[in-house]
Amino acid sequence: MYTEKVMDHFHNPRNQGVIKDADAVGQVGNPVCGDVMKLYLKINEGKIVDIKFETLGCGAAIATSSMLTEMAKGKTIEEALKIEKLDIAKELGGLPAPKLHCSILAHDALAAGIKNYKENNK
Amino acid sequence: MAKQKSFYLDNAATTPVDPRVLQAMAPYFNEAFGNASSLHGKGNEAMVAVEASRAKIASFLGCSSENVYFTSGATESDNWAILGLTRAILRDNSGFKPHIIISAVEHEAVIEPVRRLVKDGLAESTYLKVDKNGLVSPEDLKKSIKANTVLVSVMLANNEIGSIQPLTKLAQVIAEANSSRKRRILFHTDATQAPAYVECNVKKLGVDLMSLSAHKIYGPKGVGALYVGSGIKLEPLVYGGGQQQGARSGTYNVAEIVGFGKAVEIVSDKKERSEDIKRIKELRDYLVKQVLVKVPRSSLNGSLKDRLPNNASFIFPGVEGESVVLMLSRHGICASTGSACSSGSLEPSHVLLAIGVPIEHAHGSLRLTLGRFTKKSDIEALLKHLPSTIEKLRQMSPLKN
Ligand SMILES: Cc1ncc(COP(=O)(O)O)c(C=O)c1O
Ligand code: FES
What we know:
The complex is a heterodimer of chains A (122) and B (401).
Chain A: H1 4-11, E1 24-30, E2 35-44, E3 47-56, H2 59-72, H3 77-81, H4 87-91, H5 100-120
Chain B: E1 7-8, H1 19-25, H2 27-30, H3 41-61, E2 68-71, H4 74-92, E3 99-103, H5 108-119, E4 124-128, H6 138-144, E5 149-153, H7 167-178, E6 186-190, H8 202-205, E7 209-213, E8 224-228, H9 254-268, H10 270-294, E9 299-300, E10 311-315, H11 321-330, E11 333-334, H12 350-354, H13 359-362, E12 365-369, H14 376-396
Parallel strand pairs in B: 1-11, 3-4, 3-5, 5-6, 6-7
Antiparallel strand pairs in B: 2-8, 7-8, 9-10, 10-12
Helix pairs in contact in B: 1-9, 3-9, 4-5, 6-7, 10-14, 11-14
Bound molecules: pyridoxal-5'-phosphate and FE2/S2 (inorganic) cluster.
């Protein structure tokens, strides 16, 4: 059902954990739906220098979280905002249709994190 | 795929075919391969085998062979019982709207045909609620019966939490109601999960219709049966060449029917049956005890009373079931979950919700089901990997409380 790449990210999640002195965090989802994603961002001169995630959710939720951190790390905020909702699923070699919302969730978590950063730095 | 040792704890999903069943089936693929409806010797040989199998099933159910029809499995049997009865009634009574009562924890193979009839405006339905152990109450059933009630369908044993329904008591309620009615209310049960563990005598249970499936009792997939009490008229679901008295057309699936008969014969053996039940129950009880000790904040769904001896169903708050299943699978452990994310529909198990599990906890469910071929080492493998799996997933979650 899942591609090998999804399973790789699920079993060996990249950038999983917490950044204690994060410059911003973004959290989306809720436990009633079964999935919650939280991203921690470290941003230096407009660039995402570190990013970590915590996720409660299915295999796809964990894999998209992991994939997203790899995609976003090293990008400027402007570049990161160009990651589209289904880009993460695409990068993973596709997700089953009912799981596409996990890709959207990861996208939204990043958007929420960047929004939080902008608010913190007004 | 790389061959990995597997620890199979998903016998409610399907069971391996017993070697004795496989052996019984073998000649019917290329030696005794005839079409059971053919008049020649090859046909006769096949028909004899089909009828021998039907007789074994009839004997297990305590009915006669004429009451047993072969189908493609319990899904077809459930659909046929519900749609076949409703259509037969509608054909003879235009303008009448039949009422069907089912429990809230039925398998989709019962829920969906009922939902379809209701959606098409052809029937009405009532769902009987269940208590925290998954059981319906006879009083509730009594209150739900209406003037237009034609069918009650309550499963014998539940596939997710293993609860065993008080069918005899429900049958009494129906019999009482029937004593003052012109049209009898019929009682259907989906017994798919039951035959290896629970009494399935249709007279003792008091049922008019019963669905069975071979692949849950160490037989092959794609064959099942419907018991139809004498004098009950069902409209066919499958029309064609008129096999099985025209009630269910289609060339007899001889090898699988033979396998099904052999599987039933094996579960009918009193000695083997009671030894199996005892051994499986001991393993299950050990599993439950150990899991509850080894995994913090874990709980068992339902009680150990009135439950299939092979079923254990847990909630682990703070994790999502599909992740648990995938992670266990890496260690060769085969389990299942009622979580939303695993279902495709993104709704958690209706059974867990019906017994009052909060929705956020229902996402963290895990079902482990044992069987004839389960060994202590399967349980030990699970006990070795489950606690660290849950711990790891809880650590990854943003909600650590
Ligand atoms: C209670 C119950 N009813 C029906 C079915 C469907 O049976 P089959 O696979 O034979 O169609 C199953 C199996 O998933 C079941 O557990
Ligand atoms: S978290 Fe539920 S489908 Fe992915």
